[in-house]
Amino acid sequence: MSKVLMKGNEAIAEAAIQAGCRFFFGYPITPQNEIPAYMAKRLPQVGGCFVQAESEVAAINMVYGAAGAGARVMTSSSSPGISLKQEGISYIAGAELPCLIVNIVRGGPGLGGIQPAQSDYFQAVKGGGHGDYHLVVLAPSTIQETVDLVRKGFDIADQYRNPVMILGDGMLGQMMEPVEFKEAKPRRLPPKDWATTGWKGDRPRAVINSLFIDPQVLEDHVNRIYKKYEEIKANETLVECYNCEDAEIIVSAYGTTARIVRSVTEMAARKGIKIGLIRPITLWPFPAETLRSWAQRDHVKAFLTVEMSMGQMVEDVTLSIDGLKPSHFYGRTGGMVPRPADILAEIEKIRGVNL
Amino acid sequence: MNDTINAPRLVLFTGHFGSGKTEIAVNYALRSADSGHKTILVDLDIVNPFFRSSEVGAHLEANGVKLISPNFVSTAVDVPSLPAEIYSVFSDKSAKVIFDVGGDEIGARVLGQFHPYFQKEPYLMYYVINTKRPLSCTEQDILSMMQEVQRMSRLRITHLINNTNLSYETEICDIINGHVLISQISKSAEIPIAYIAGVKELLDQLPDEMDCGLFPIRIFMKPPWR
Prior knowledge:
Radius of gyration of chain B: 16 Å
Radius of gyration of chain A: 21 Å
Number of strands of chain B: 8
CATH superfamily of chain B: P-loop containing nucleotide triphosphate hydrolases
Order of helices and strands of chain A: EHEHEHEHHEHEHEHEHEEHEEHEHEH
Number of helices of chain A: 13
CATH superfamily of the largest domain in chain A: Thiamin diphosphate (ThDP)-binding fold, Pyr/PP domains
Number of domains of chain A: 2
Helix content of chain B: 25-40%
Helix content of chain A: 40-55%
Largest interface: A-B, 34 and 22 residues
Distance between the termini of chain B: 27 Å
Shape of chain B: globular
Largest sheet of chain A: 7 strands, mixed
Oligomer: heterodimer
Strand content of chain B: 15-25%
Structural class of chain B: alpha/beta
CATH topology of chain B: Rossmann fold
Shape of chain A: globular
CATH architecture of the largest domain in chain A: 3-Layer(aba) Sandwich
Strand content of chain A: 15-25%
Number of helices of chain B: 8
Largest sheet of chain B: 8 strands, parallel
Order of helices and strands of chain B: EHEHEHEHHEHEHEHE
Structural class of chain A: alpha/beta
CATH class of the largest domain in chain A: Alpha Beta
Distance between the termini of chain A: 50 Å
Strand order of the largest sheet of chain A: 3-2-4-5-7-6-12
């Protein structure tokens, strides 16, 4: 298929359909409305089902139901709406159901604003809902990568029976870029023999449940899920290292911010400053090993994390590099996007202190 | 843009969602002001939250274009509300007025309320087409959206604009392939193609014998890394 020009939100929706998603339940909120709008138009054309639910809480519980019945299912929202979905997300994680949840992040807290932000990082990677669980969190930085990660996200969800989140921001959702929907190599996935598809007496009854009254049973259940998380960490961690080979300062950023930082590496190079970029593509599992291995190199003098938030991922960067090198932070929030010149100024300041 | 002198003073840009209406409307307004017209750009886009003409407000004002934006634009208040000031453009007949209309039939719906004014004065209504957009790449899709836009706006599309592009990856063959499709649409709908729009470097590569005008544009809606 030749390239088309798409908004990030539309590309997410089309990629989901091409990955076999036939069910979408959601509730509108800016800046992700093009996802439900596109799904409403396209899903009936491919024999799928789109429901605009009465609320985010209803939508996520419809996802729970469809996922329990073995469907490839997706929902999307933006920050305040994702907060509303948290109870359902925890239930889905507890019941070990695969689904894709898209958060096109806007400024917060509260109703916040409608401009791009990354301030839902903690919510996405540290739980969000209650209980011991993790989402696999994918953070694309181009629309092409978004398309590729949507398919991967569905596959990861199915392979490990765990909810997966695409964490984008308003910029990624709203901007337009050329994309290509490539024929992807299908992953070998286990059959969904656990799904509630009707009992004909030829297998144990399928039960979708997240209630375990006996504490020992619940502990065993959680331990089993955590064993899966170790597998996910080993198999699915994704990170891009750019220009790190002889970098004096390594900047860590994800999503839209990583693209801004990438343009800063060129500006810095013109000034004779060697900057590398480490871009986590999976925010959970976090590429801690990669960061640590660069921190061990002598030529790397300091780390800087840049975010569209008040400093959330920087905590994971600091934990990963474990005191080997100083860890700095620069961020804008509330829908403000960091400017390349301001990031460069911050780098020059750090360089003055650390080199 | 030869028609800015004698053409009707009311000029509307409609099109499929994401077809490039805003870039073209902003460029059109700047050119109109540059050629000495009193120019007003009305941002009627209540569909799109980002990348809208109101974001280049300062540049427009500095270059002599007055901008009228929806209430609460670029604020946290996500309310599709239009200011009463819009009605003033119909009474002040000295100004060239360019309407940047929201995408699809949904965006065009807001035009319906101004219907009586467009009955009294001639207008140009451009329909912008990018054949590289996923839901507007077949003749059938484009024709049915054009019908919907006309029905909702209660106005008639007077001209087509070929704005086929893949953003910064556009090649000249994309524009020409788009032109072949849009020429068929022009024939079936009996609406002429006014322009091919695009950045100057690309338009310069077009063969001389194109059957319509060329509208070179400068790109204003950019992410911070470009």
